[in-house]
Amino acid sequence: MDTEHWKVLLAAIDTGSLSAAGEKLGYTVSGISRSVAALEKEIGFPLLYRSKQGVTPTPPCARLLPDVRELMYVQNKIEQTAANVLGYEQGSVGIGTAYRHYYPWITAVTSQFRALHPKIRFDIVNGTSTDLVGQLERHALDFCIVSAREGAHQWLPLCQDPLLAVVPANHPLAKRESVPLEALLPEPYIQTCPGLDIDSTRFFTHRGVKPNLQFTTADVQATYAMIGAGLGYTIGNRINSNFHDPAVRHLAIDPPEIIEIGLAYSKVPTPAAAAFLKFIKKQMPAET
Predict the structure, then answer these.
(1) What is the extent of the structural domain holding 142?
(2) Residue 193 in contact with residue 218, Cβ under 8 Å?
(3) Structurally, how many domains does the chain consist of?
């Protein structure tokens, strides 16, 4: 069984498009189609649904995907180990972060590591904690800086981060240092990234209450702009808060809600990821 066909299939599924998979792997669209067709003939059933919107795995294909991803991960590890035996390095390291606060640190560490290991390639992406941990566990990433999530991965704590209430600067509650959640619940709530499993949505679930949802936005900057305009409040991570915005105030929540942020990584890293992990443990940032 040609593992290159499985690599093509995963690229098509992960990008959602035959053309995008071709661009990623350097194939033509017809080449991608032929590879998938050859695999379907060999395996004995259809693997992809095709539509104008792109491609998605069939139910039988979805059952295979965890094993396919494990196969490709093991092949990658073998290739990297073989390269090391021959006296040279190869491979890549994928890093995700849910917190922009850590970009300066992770890029500085990456730069230092690359000076010692110039053949190792890096990919840095952003996303929500839940999404990034999912990518980690299906081997699309090697590391991610996230809030604590369930899953089969290793964990290196970075900081304890309190959630804060963010209100308009002219709000009656803005003069307080802390505020009970009950005082905020009647207020219009602005939800960043609705429908995603992020720290603020977990906060309300943990407290067993629902906010008075009135507005949604796609990013934190838009949320801050709406708060500054007096449209409502939000709950957000202190580590990502914009304390330089004079139009808003940040209040501690009473009782506090503390989020543990850390570095999640694979239990069985590739040689390149293992080398980076050893290096990064010596460069841990001070807790903020």
Answers:
(1) 89-158+261-280
(2) yes
(3) 3
